[in-house]
Design goal:
The chain has about 500 residues and is an alpha+beta fold. It contains 16 helices and 23 strands.
Length: about 500
């Protein structure tokens, strides 16, 4: 028997089947369309994502010559904060999904910050006011989509992040389908109290969101329901937001263990155990996971909006490379960045700055700079942003990180991983299994049905594939970091 994992990400949806050793038996993936109707707006079509989800499930099963009966359970992991509202009776979305990177709510951020500042909800939710989280996306939808508010008041509307939408579709996609989210995803809506793990009425009132549209909050690892249709009869038994799933997939179960996922964005999470650590250095406090009836575990998180997405931008918008993997070869055509720094503040700057008025800049350009230097500066931007987050984490948690566990698609880029180790001045470790997001959701589902016994079972699956050690002289590192920070300051205040 095996465990399946639906990984509904920002650019694609995947279905991966894992065995007991946490190794991949079969994988299928399909990209979906990114819609940019206006500058700063980012949307997905929920119907397209649901069609793709069914397709990759069928494909992965067929490839491995399996049927749903060979799966003991399935877990779901998802791009977080991305917001969908749909009709409870017809299943039709009222509007495209508004993606986590979308900045259309920046005027609402300013409006709500006017009374109590950007941190007015931080104590309760762990989050600053920002365009990133679901709360303001729901508020925008209720105010701007015809009939939505009226239908919501009548009890006809359901809201969900992508885990909730996929689970609802998987359990029948009708009025009897399950409308559920887990504590990790709920903690990203800015509507849940981090201590009680319940929707907070005072927040709902401030944001103007009717409670009846919200899903039920459950733990990250339990049997929620049996699937219908494409996974007929298989228990859905795990839900984790993608970055928390990667933390579980990397088996960072002890306080002080951290991982960084290099994907569309870049997300570093530090396990803080069952204590809720409020950040004073621009990070966010979030739920790490809750396994069944065990106490909830918390994490500090640093979020970078644009990492791999910058490589895609060089590919799709500028045509500098043909495919994303070409970026390393392009960057290796030069010795260094030629004095050029790329700050990819396409959606503002997230942690540790939280500046929604920032926009992307390339600084330090001279006639000497070539496309190779630009490619290298784009890769380095991911590593510099990670360094800023690590520094904030060490200040908040009062601990010095001894190594960084890295995962996600960009970790195959050896140049980036070496540069990351040089900048952080600690070893960077890539595990044997870099699909840790999907693996984390599989672990959550497998624990719920007894496929894996306990956390030690999971730890035994974790193994190191490669370690990079720092080689850069300190003076060079400090000088580059100074230039990077100068470039970051140039990006502030662009949007008025």
């Amino acid at each position: 028997m095996y465990i399946g994992s639906i990984d509904q990400g920002t650019t694609s949806t995947r279905f991966i089947i894992f065995d007991k050793k946490g190794e991949i038996i079969s994988i299928a993936q399909k990209e979906h369309t990114q819609y940019y109707p206006q500058p700063g707006w980012v949307e997905h079509n929920p119907d397209e994502i649901w069609v793709n989800t069914q397709e990759v499930i069928r494909q992965a099963l067929t490839q491995a010559q399996l049927t749903p009966k060979d799966l003991l359970a399935v877990g779901i992991t998802n791009q977080r904060e991305t917001t969908v509202v749909w009709n409870k009776f017809t299943g039709k979305p009222y509007y495209n999904a508004i993606v986590w990177q979308d900045t259309r709510t920046s005027s609402l951020v300013n409006e709500l910050s006017a009374d109590g500042g950007p941190d007015r909800f931080r104590e309760k939710t762990g989050l600053p006011l920002a365009t990133y989280f679901s709360s303001l996306k729901i508020k925008w939808l209720l105010k701007n989509v015809a009939t939505l508010e009226k239908d919501a008041m009548k009890g006809e509307v359901l809201f969900g992040t992508m885990d909730t939408y996929v689970l609802w579709q998987l359990t029948g996609g009708n009025k009897n389908a399950k409308h559920i989210t887990d504590v990790t995803n709920a903690s990203r809506t800015q509507l849940m109290d981090l201590q009680t793990l319940k929707w907070d009425d005072s927040l709902l009132e401030i944001f103007g969101i009717p409670r009846k549209i919200l899903p039920e909050i459950r733990s990250s690892s339990e049997v929620y329901a049996k699937a219908k249709g494409v996974l007929e009869g298989v228990p859905i038994a795990g839900i984790l937001g993608d970055q928390q799933a990667a933390l579980v997939g990397q088996t960072c179960f002890r306080p002080g263990e951290a991982k960084n996922t290099y994907g569309t964005g870049c997300f570093m999470l530090l396990n803080t155990g069952d204590s809720l650590t409020q950040s004073t250095h621009g990070l966010i406090t979030t739920v790490a996971y809750q396994l069944g009836k065990q106490p909830v575990q918390y994490a500090l998180e640093g979020s970078v909006a644009i990492a791999g997405a910058l490589v895609q931008w060089l590919r799709d918008n500028l045509g500098l490379i043909e495919k994303s993997s070409d970026i390393e070869a392009l960057a290796r055509t030069v010795e260094d960045n030629g004095g050029c720094y790329f700050v990819p503040a396409f959606s503002g700057m997230y942690a540790p700055y939280w500046r929604s008025d920032a926009r992307g800049v390339v600084a330090g350009l001279t006639r000497f700079v070539t496309k190779g230097h630009l490619g290298r500066a784009a890769l380095e931007a991911t590593a510099f942003q990670t360094l800023e987050i690590l520094e904030a984490m060490e200040k908040d948690a009062g601990i010095r990180l001894s190594e960084l566990r890295a995962d996600g698609g960009m970790t195959v880029n050896e140049l980036l991983m070496q540069f990351q180790s040089d900048l952080l001045n600690v070893p960077v470790v890539r595990p044997k299994m870099i699909e840790t997001t999907a693996l984390g959701a599989a672990y959550a589902a497998g624990l719920a049905v007894g496929y894996w016994k306990d956390l030690d079972d999971l730890r035994q699956n974790w193994g190191i594939e490669k370690t990079w050690k720092p080689q850069m002289p300190r003076a060079k590192r400090n000088s580059m970091y100074r230039s990077w920070r100068k470039a970051v300051r140039r990006s502030f205040g662009w949007e008025e």
